[in-house]
Amino acid sequence: MANQLTQPERFFSSHFGMNDSALEKILGTALERKADYADLYFEYHSAEGLSLEDSMVNKTAKSLSQGVGVRVCAEDRTGYAYSDEVTVDRMRIAAEAARAIADQRSSAHGPVMVGHPVPSHNLYELESLPLEVPVSEKVKLLNQIDQVARAKDPRVKNVLASFAAEKKIVMVVNSEGRVAADVQPLCRLNVTVIADDGKNRQIGSFGGGGRVEYSHFIESERWREYTLEAVRQALLNLEAVDAPAGEMTVVLGPGWPGILLHEAIGHGLEGDFNRKGTSAFSGKIGQVVASPLCTVIDDGTIPNRRGSLNVDDEGTPTSRTVLIEKGILRGYLQDRLNARLMKMTPTGNGRRESFAHMPMPRMTNTFMLAGESTPDDILKSVKRGLFAVSFGGGQVDITSGKFVFSASEAYLIEDGQVTRPVKGATLIGNGPDVLTKVSMVGNDLRLDSGIGTCGKDGQSVPVGVGLPTIKIDQLTVGGTHA
């Protein structure tokens, strides 16, 4: 560190007065008992949010937090303690608390020598950060969104718009002496429209973002695109008929429907569930788990994407991980702890919500690679089915793989043609089973617009999803009539 300070390392050195000697002492304290590994996670987090409702920007908020988490790993046990007061004394107390899980015998670990920088990517170097843009500019933008949405159609009765931005400065120092640091910008614009025709009330939502500059929304008028798309969805749902119920062919549209892949498949491929044998994919590496048309990737290295990171929250550079290749299970998403216990390599998927949380294996940007079919050919091959273009909420049981998803935009497919929009459609199935029923994969892979947030064990982290158009034979659709 002393000779190769990066910008975030300089920040922590000056802001908290942390030097190599202090860091080495804290890690030494954490390792005084027999432990395998220890690390320190420093975080400085600033955030801002604005929201509009009833044609008024009625809420603005700014926040600032900072802290350090101390972790000690001994075999499959983890001790974790954190403090929002970053001083040597507080860190020492946290280290003593975290090491309580370790073996009582003295440590076999040698002295820690801090000073080995971790090479990382450069995925989101921005000329300016969204937090630096005056609040007045963002208020103006939200008001423009409200005006454009209401002017589009008199059935638009309310508009909810929000903008959120944050900057995280993080640094990870571990007992191997390795130091990783990063500055992580993130922002998101979201628009929800409520439409009412006097007989029916429906909503439409759209948004986007990523590790991008504020100009991302202004140039090419993306904000207007988001607004008009939310209006279109709301008005479309006013005309929708009740969804049918029963077993049928389902076609998923490209982009955001990849959330089904994320929930129904992705979580089951995370290392902790597989090490413990609780995933439906446990012990199946090298086996066929999907149609040969399916190749599933998790890639944290795509520039400016919401789910991308230069290094994960353990200081490991992110990577492109092939999870399923032409139907064959190739690997799992790994953090350091589970990779060590499973004798595998960390994949850069150790993630945490903040310094107050332990890292665990999580997805970054998860998607299926494109196939060779055109979307038109896929739709034309369906006699009767459902075309799901966008999703709202969903849930999955990791152990059984069972999932339920609500479609926020869907259509009937009749004799190869997309016909009437439907409402109230839910998709019900089993994650490991659904990939075996993929019979066509489109050539139109699309990543989502940058809105995904993933929850696991009470922690939320930003993620990305993606999908080409795919055809699934025989999936249960829950609707309102048979």
Short description:
The protein is α+β, with helices and mostly antiparallel strands and 482 residues long. The protein has 2 domains: 233 residues, PmbA/TldD superfamily (PmbA/TldD fold, 2-Layer Sandwich); 237 residues, no CATH class.
Helices and strands in order:
Elements: H1 7-16, H2 20-30, E1 33-34, E2 37-53, E3 56-74, E4 77-83, H3 88-98, E5 103-106, E6 116-117, H4 135-152, E7 156-174, E8 178-196, E9 201-210, H5 215-218, H6 222-239, E10 241-242, E11 246-252, H7 258-266, H8 271-275, E12 296-299, E13 320-325, E14 328-329, H9 336-341, E15 350-351, E16 360-361, E17 365-368, H10 375-380, E18 384-396, E19 402-414, E20 417-423, E21 426-430, H11 431-434, E22 438-441, E23 446-447, E24 453-456, E25 459-462, E26 464-467, E27 470-478
Parallel strand pairs: 6-8, 10-20, 11-18, 17-26
Antiparallel strand pairs: 1-5, 2-3, 2-7, 3-4, 7-8, 8-9, 11-27, 12-13, 12-17, 13-14, 15-16, 18-19, 19-20, 19-21, 21-27, 22-27, 23-26, 24-25
Distance between the termini: 66 Å
Unreliable runs: 1-5
Number of strands: 27
Mean pLDDT metric: 92
| Oligomer type | single chain
Report on the biggest sheet. Answer: 7 strands, mixed
Tell me the β content. 35-45%
Provide the number of structural domains.
Answer: 2
Helix content: 10-25%
What does the radius of gyration come to? 24 Å
Dominant shape: globular
Q: Structural class per helix/strand content?
A: alpha+beta
Can you count the helices? 11
Report on the structure:
The structure is a single chain. The protein has 482 residues and is α+β, with helices and mostly antiparallel strands. It contains 11 helices and 27 strands. Strands 2, 3, 4, 6, 7, 8 and 9 form a 7-stranded mixed beta sheet that branches. It has a 6-stranded mixed beta sheet with strand order 14-13-12-17-26-23. Strands 11-18-19-21-27 form a 5-stranded mixed β-barrel. A hairpin with an 8-residue loop joins strand 15 and strand 16. Helix 2 runs parallel beside helix 3 and helix 4 packs parallel to helix 6. The termini are far apart.
